[in-house]
Each structure stands twice: as structure tokens, then as C-alpha cells.
Amino acid sequence: MNNKSIRIIGAGPSGLCAAINLARAGYDVTVFEGRGDVGARFHGDFQGIENWSTVTDFPTQLEEMSIRPDFLCHPYTTGRFYMKGNYGGAVQSDRPLFYLTLRGPQENSLDRSLRRQAEEAGVELRFNRRCTPQEGEIVATGPARPNVLASGVTFRTDLSDTIMATLNNEIAPWGYAYLLVRKGRGTLASVYYRDFPKGFDFLDRSIRHFQKKVPFAMEEAHRFTGYGNFTPVTTAVHHGRLYVGEAAGFQDFLFGFGIRYALTSGYLAARSIIEDRDYDTLWQETIGKRLTTSLANRYLYQIFGTLAHRFIIWRTTRGNPWRFMHRFYNSSASRVLACRPAARWLAGTRGGKPLPWKEEYL
Ligand SMILES: Cc1cc2nc3c(=O)[nH]c(=O)nc-3n(C[C@H](O)[C@H](O)[C@H](O)COP(=O)(O)OP(=O)(O)OC[C@H]3O[C@@H](n4cnc5c(N)ncnc54)[C@H](O)[C@@H]3O)c2cc1C
């Protein structure tokens, strides 16, 4: 691609990371965003950026991608992790397990910071401009078709800083529920892969579940829903356009930690243009194996059900949770053993055949 003028469709982390790197390399970049601001698909909720999939710490990776961490990016080495029946306990790691961040258009969020950095680099952002993929060189439009949902609530609370997660199919089928509290603000959510119409039911059950563990008050509560999309990726180049982030299908199939995939793929798309290198080769070399492992892990996770819950919790609440999660996310054994059946399973149940879906689930 020799064109020095690049149009990017979508101003999420993937599109903005590509934009920042291209603009710094001298390209004339315009980003078209369908909504009125960055992060408008989120709700001021806390999200966790996992720090176990690579040996490189997330802030170091940000530095490599020329992104300043001038947003909420707080490391956590401890938390509590449970499954049904109260099995579980404290998780204690010798290195950050994840970085807490904020999503939405407000100050201190990841989205606001990326917008500021893009504007400083000279990127032109056009809001309320919904475009077709054909109008851009890079497509960063996020999840296309929902097949995993989250119902959550943001609130004020008197609870001290807390990180908790639970694997329990009664409150979050095939997914998980989490409670994140920092400096008097909380986010509690259920992430579920089936029974979509029962979303706020799962949320109510998750609230009761966490309040039994640590009683807490919730004020100024705002409910929200969000969605993600799991589609197997074979190529991220369609009709000469580079697809990044969830639009390409880059997602952690196991638990939906998509932020690092979004930033990394945006960065790789920029590099492929700047260095005139093949984008498919770049992402396959960098994230291809991890992506396949996460697909195999999701398949095994659903096949083994509560046994998988017990295994993950047993390993993370004992010994070195970072090392276990790192191996789990990079396991060549699950990749080799489960990859083919996992791909067939995903194509049959999630990728190819749309799940029953109605707009009112959101
Ligand atoms: C409730 C919830 C909780 C989550 N929690 C976590 C977490 O804890 N950790 C984690 O790592 N990940 C989490 N994720 C996933 C993570 O947020 C996403 O993977 C990540 O935002 C994907 O980035 P992206 O740039 O690919 O897409 P997006 O962030 O979705 O950005 C795409 C942008 O494109 C715009 N757009 C779409 N279509 C068009 C169009 N036609 N024209 C113009 N603009 C368009 C959208 O408005 C949007 O702004 C969560 C997701 C949800 C919904």
C-alpha cells in the first residue's frame, strides 16, 4: 500500500492504535467513527487488561506500540476467585495478573487517552460517520455479530478496593461473573454465552452472589449490556483491506480479554503498511498461536464444564497463578489436541450459524 493517505473505519482501541502509529510515521490519517465520541459503546465500566498471555508486561508492550499509559492502568497482583459451591479463595501473584482500566468517553479512560494521543499525532477524527468497509483501508468496526453477552452495573460503593471473579453456570452460563471496585467506584457484571433473554436475571443473581461474599451498598447504579463476537480467523485481509481488532475476529475465545488483541492488531496493521509487509504473516507470527490456543481452550472449557472450573481455580489459588495462566494461554498441547474439533465446533455452533438473537437483549 503506497498511498500516504489512510482511512480507518472505527475509533476503538484497534483503529486508534493503528491511526497513532501511521500518523507518527508521516501518513495522513482520517478515522471515521459511527458514534458521537470514542468509547461510546461502553459505560464508564472497569475492564481488566490481562497481563499473562505474554512474558512482556502490558506497559512495556504499550511503549513498544508508541502508546503512553496516561489512562487508568492500575496493576493487580491479588484477588479472589471462586466457583459454584464456594470452592476457591485468594489469588496471590508475584507479578501483575492484569491492569485495571476504564472504558468509555470520560477522562482517565483508555478510549479518551487514545483519542488524545491520536489528535496530538495529527489524526483527523470524524464522528457520527457510519461507513461501509469499502470506504476504508483499515476496518476496525468491532464485533460484527454478537455471540457472547455481558450484563453489568456500574455504581458507587463504600467497599474498599476489591477484585473478585466466579465461574458458575447458574449466574454466568459458560462465562464468568466479576466484581471490580476501585476508589469507591464499582463494576459488577455477568458474561454469558447462552440463554441471552435472561441477561438481567444473571446480573441480579451475580449481585446476590457477590453481596453474600462481601456485603456492600450500591448507589447511583447504572445497568448496561455489551456484546462480543467469536469468529475463527483465517485471514484478516479482505478485498485488500486490513481488518483489525474484533472486526477481524481477534479475541480471546476463552474469556473475552480482547483489548490486547485489539491494540496489537492495530499496531501490526500500521507496521504492515509502513514497512510494506504482509499483514497476515505479521499477525500469524505474533498472535496466531495464542489465538488458536484460546479457541482450543474454550472448546475444552465447555466440554469439561465444572471440572474445568475446578481445575482453573485450583491452579490459580495455589502456587504461581501468573505462570499457570501464561502456560494455559500458550499451551501447545491443547492447541495440537483440540484445535481441529474446536474449529469444527465453533463453525457449527458459533461462527457459521447465528445464535437466536433479538435487539432487545441489549
Ligand atoms: C461489557 C464488556 C466488557 C469487556 N471487558 C473486557 C475486559 O475486561 N478485558 C478485555 O481485554 N476486553 C474486554 N472486553 C472486550 C473489549 O472491550 C473489546 O475486545 C475491544 O474493545 C475491541 O476493540 P476494537 O477496537 O476491536 O472494537 P471496539 O472497541 O468495539 O471499537 C469499534 C468502534 O467502531 C465503531 N464502529 C462500528 N461500526 C462502524 C461503522 N460502520 N462506521 C464507523 N464506525 C463504526 C464503534 O462505534 C466503535 O467505537 C469487554 C467487552 C464488553 C462489551
How does this structure look, described?
The chain is α/β, with parallel strands linked by helices and 362 residues long. The chain contains nine helices and 16 strands. It has helices spanning 13-24, 58-64, 110-120, 199-213, 259-274, 279-304, 306-316, 321-330, 332-351, and strands at 5-9, 28-32, 45-50, 74-76, 78-83, 88-92, 98-103, 124-126, 138-139, 148-156, 162-167, 176-182, 185-192, 219-228, 237-238, 241-243. The strands form three sheets. The protein has a seven-stranded mixed β-sheet, with helices on both faces. Strands 8-2-1-9-16-15 form a six-stranded mixed β-sheet, covered by helices on one side. Strands 3-7-4 form a three-stranded antiparallel β-sheet, with helices on one face. Strand 1 (5-9), helix 1 and strand 2 (28-32) form a beta-alpha-beta unit. Helix 1 packs parallel to helix 5 (259-274) and helix 6 (279-304) packs across helix 9 (332-351). The protein is globular, with a radius of gyration of 20 Å. The model is unreliable at 350-358 (pLDDT under 50). Bound molecules: flavin-adenine dinucleotide.
Tell me briefly what this model is.
The protein is an alpha/beta fold and 362 residues long.
